[in-house]
Amino acid sequence: MASEHPLLHVDHLSKVYYRDAFKRHPAFRLEADFEISGARIVGVMGPNGSGKTTLFELITGSNRPSAGKVYCAGRNIHNVRYDERDRLAIHYHQSYQVRHFRRSKPAFLMQRANSDYPLVHLFDEPQFNTQDGYIGFMLDFFRRLRSEDRLVFLCLHPNEAFHLEIMQELCEQFIFVQQGRLSHVADYDALLSQPAVRSYLGDLIRA
After folding, report:
1. Crossing angle of helices 134-147 and 161-170, rounded to 10°
2. DSSP secondary structure letter of residue 32
3. Which of 54, 129, 141, 144 could bridge 134 with an S-S bond, Cβ 3.0-4.6 Å?
4. pTM value?
């Protein structure tokens, strides 16, 4: 689907979870504001509970933001019909669970996706089998999506050195998520130069 709009525009997005029903004491806040104009592979990492999966859910429209908007090729994904949102952005979770949408509007009041195939693909900690060429197959799959003008997010929680090798080989830019805040990094070397990233990765990188 050709468009003059960026593939993804996360516009002053926030999601706040509260400790109690009266919403007086925030327990967690995620904030994001960025734009990616064209096809690329973006690496995402950060500690458990930092907000990575919440970010992916907001981008695909399966989680409702507290404020802000998400535009995929110019369409506000939270205004797109529930059964067509995955034609714009799709979230692949390692557990293969499908997130059910909380339907708050009838379909006739919502926009059509105007796309037959997802433009944004978000891979949330995919499992990499080290046998039988599976990793090579997955790397080829990610690259093929990018060659078809798709935007690919690859989120890993590295616990093996080869996870970092995959991200170094594939990813053209990075997002590091910590305590609900996003740091945007231009390349792998710049990523590893950040003290918070080095602390997070620990023994997986050389001192």
Report:
1. 30
2. E
3. 129
4. 0.88
